[in-house]
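> agent: user asked for a holo structure of the chain below bound to pyridoxal-5'-phosphate. Plan: (1) validate sequence alphabet, (2) canonicalize SMILES, (3) run complex prediction with ligand conditioning, (4) return tokens. Step 1... ok. Step 2... ok. Step 3 dispatched.
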Amino acid sequence: MARPKPPLSGPHPLELSGDVMREMVALAMDHIVPHIESLPEQPMHATRGGKRLARLLRERLPERGTPYEKLLRRLFGKVIPMSLNTASPGYMGYIPGGGLFHAAVADLIADAVNRYVGVFQAAPLLVQIEADVISWFCAMLGLPEGSGGILTTGGSLANLVAVITARRDRLPPDFLRGTLYASEEAHHSVKKAALLAGFPPEAVREIPVDGRFRMRPDAAAEVVARDRARGLSPFLLVASAGTTGTGAVDDLRALADLAVAERLWLHVDAAYGGFFALTERGRAAMRGIERADSVTLDPHKSLFLPYGTGCLAVRDREALRRAHAVSASYMPPMQAEDDLVDFCELGPELSRDARGLRVWLPLKMHGASVFRAALDEKLTLARGAADALRRTAHIEVAAEPELSLLAFRARPPGIEDGPPLDALNRRLLARVNAKQRVLLTGVRAGGRLLLRMCILSFRTHADRVDAAIADIAASLAEVLEESRDGGLEPARGQEQPGGEDDD
Ligand SMILES: *Cc1c(COP(=O)(O)O)cnc(C)c1O
């Protein structure tokens, strides 16, 4: 039976009736549920023609409304399908997360009630829920009493707040002699953060990595000493707990020792790997993270949330306050007690969404044990994938999974290392992705093109990892067959999917 369709007009059309609100959500759900249920069968990527269709989509601000159902049909029929299927169980490119539906419901609640969480007084209990979430994260990392942090929109913003906080904590107001240190495999948001924080590009020192793509502490120590001798002011050491390229976890204990010896702020970028600290194997891999001054986490990666949630956890919450607190007479009073928090004093934002709920709801509904088990499954799957690739002819595993990300490449005999081998691997990547069962991405590391597999979606299980291994083996056979026939199609100029276009 068709649902009644209450009108969207009237004297105050923006004030929806109860029936209309229910109807809106129900109709959205009529599209969302089939979409999510069909994720495993949907193609992994469908962005061909994106430029042309994006241009066709452009329109002026409409003066009159369009029926809601028509808009839903356009979104789900046309707009959303033209994309990388980042929510699919087969998505192993970049860093997946999946996107828990629970968080979408939490967002609906948070947005619908529209409470203000920038200051404690405006919604003490909602603010406390968010503060609790952050204290859970601090405890997970092993940070002591007095630690705290903020939820951001992602890891890049968390890294920015970390760099600014370290700068305020360790350097004078005239800070341009300051230098910071990160490995050449560190995420590019570290450099961006330094630039946004006012440093020139040369202030960011890229430290070489070892054979496992980990920052070399000895090299870092040397560069720091040399900079100090030149009258510069080393102030920040950025370690990675799971690099984006190959999943490398830096030796956090050695880097913590260096930070202490050189009085550097130690920031650990754990945007990819951080929540593996919930598991025993993850904690072992990231030993030393508890000694960090600050840690970037991305709940929209290893806590499986939808995009839009990052976190900066800081050992000394007061350092965040010193870097961000600014007062104004029109603001309500801030909390003086240590155990209460006004988030506007700890970060760059004032008004913002109540983003704590999207973390809190799934963790409260399931408990940490369910997340721990899911993360443990990913660790096991990644080890299994590395073993299977090692048994595959002509494949070499270039980066073993420290957590759930591994990198490999084809290395058949008779093809010269360097551009010819890179070209072959680029074709292999394109072949694997063309099969549309999994989506992998590439990276250039150690001067070579590597294919990477990041197993992190809560939807990814053994069946899809097996499919990935089968598709890699079959694709390599096809690519080798082609090169034997001499019918080499020209190597695609790109290492990443989604850029292909027909115009
Ligand atoms: C993803 C990632 C970032 C950036 O996080 P966003 O949420 O994309 O802004 C930073 N560092 C590492 C190691 C990452 O994997």
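> agent: step 4 complete. Summary for user: The longest strand covers residues 233-240. The pocket of pyridoxal-5'-phosphate is lined by residues 95, 154-156, 159, 187, 189, 240, 244, 269, 271-272, 298, 310 (CB under 6 Å).
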